[in-house]
């Protein structure tokens, strides 16, 4: 929990962290998958430059594999957060707790 005075700073930090973690590796990983599915590279001066023919079957496997991995990791994070979730003390919860306490005392 973050103090109310630092909530805007925490939200900004959360957004920057999310952008760094989510935006930077994605294109690099997808680019590596596309490069791995290349069948014919054009060569200029002993270095590869562009791909002339892609194996679309491999591209589809890589895309499906990456989606499955991301969904699986998301599900794991969801269940971990669900497992450790603690219900906050809201006014409704406090009111319900007081009613239960008075019912037990009777």
Structural class: alpha+beta
- The count of DSSP E runs of length 2 or more, i.e. the number of strands, is 2
Distance between the termini: 36 Å
What integer is the average pLDDT?
Answer: 81
Rg, Å, rounded? 25 Å
Bin the strand percentage: 5-15%
Strand order of the largest sheet: 1-2
Secondary-structure element series: HHEEHH
So how many helices? 4
Low-confidence stretches: none
Shape: elongated
- Report on the biggest sheet: 2 strands, antiparallel
Q: Would you write up a description of this structure?
A:
This protein is α+β, with helices and mostly antiparallel strands and 106 residues long. It is 69% helix and 14% strand. The chain contains four helices and two strands; from the N terminus they run ααββαα. The chain has helices spanning 7-23, 25-36, 56-84, 91-105; strands spanning 38-44, 47-54. Helix 2 (25-36) runs antiparallel to helix 3 (56-84). It starts with 6 loop residues before the first helix and ends with a helix. The model has no long low-confidence stretch (mean pLDDT 81).
